[in-house]
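Prompt: I keep going back and forth on a fold encoding question. Comparing notes only helps if you start from a blank page. Show me how you would write down a chain together with its backbone fold. Please set it down just below, with no commentary around it:
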Amino acid sequence: MRFPLAGVTALLTALPALAEIKINENLGVSGYVVGSARYAKADPGDNNSTLDIDAYKLAASAYFKPVTGTVSFFGFSSGDPVLLDAYATYDFGGGTTLTAGKFLSWLGYEAFDWTNMTQISYGWEGSPGAANIASPNIPAYHSGVKLENSGDGYSMGIAFLDSLYGPTYYKGDGDLDNGVGAEVYYTYKGAATTAFFSLAAQTDDDTDTDVFTADVWLQHVIGDTTLAAEYSWSSFDTASGKKEPYFWLLFIKQAFSPKVALVGRIAGGEVLSDEEFTKFTFAPLFTVTPNLEVSTEYSFTDYKNHSADKGHFLGAQMRFKF
């Protein structure tokens, strides 16, 4: 699953991407540091508050046409940094590329990197902190090869992977003997509307599990208003039975100026343990400079079949990127 988050294709018009610093014509670097103050409470249950670094990332890309190589290192406030991206892309021209290595899944409207998010938490999880639960649908990083083609108003791709879901967020299982994974997607890109359709699958002989996932999202921009919707459904077929986790979200972002926007989101879903959640999010977003943003959020989550009946999350996150 994605960081106990989210996609490459996510939030296409919501925020600028990392601003790469060109060292020379063949080398560029980028990265970010993100930290936040958070308060979370489960009812009934515990509450907790934190003030810490959330994550940091340093990436470098080497350009030797027609080949581009990218590596990145990523870490949280605790633990050692990990190798996140490690891939090379060959550009055939005409909009066709072939990539091999370790890379992020295409699935998911909401992005993996917080600097490409308009809020702090994710639509596929409950309230971060105490008693949180999350739908497992959206993958994160895995290894393999992927072929993509893009043109006027569309992009599409197919990937063959070591696994769809790995043992952790930053890699797949690294084993082809126990099964493989695959993804395919198609994106329509209009003047104001973007539509994303994807299918993904995995077989795992070690755990006797077959997984199938579908993810669809739509985005429409009307002036300073961005509207979006996503639905994701999975089938986890195991020796002990079948589970069908899912999640959905409705999203609106209203920009009042180049520096101030308000985000609202309603989301819900069911996790592998049959627990359910419905989540309401209000998230003011402030752009201080092109390199510095402040995201604030309040989320309320209503749970069903869960140890907590309700969850509250309040946070303010500072994001510096380069």
Notes: The radius of gyration is 19 Å. DSSP finds no helices and 18 strands in the chain. The first strand starts at residue 21 and ends at 24.
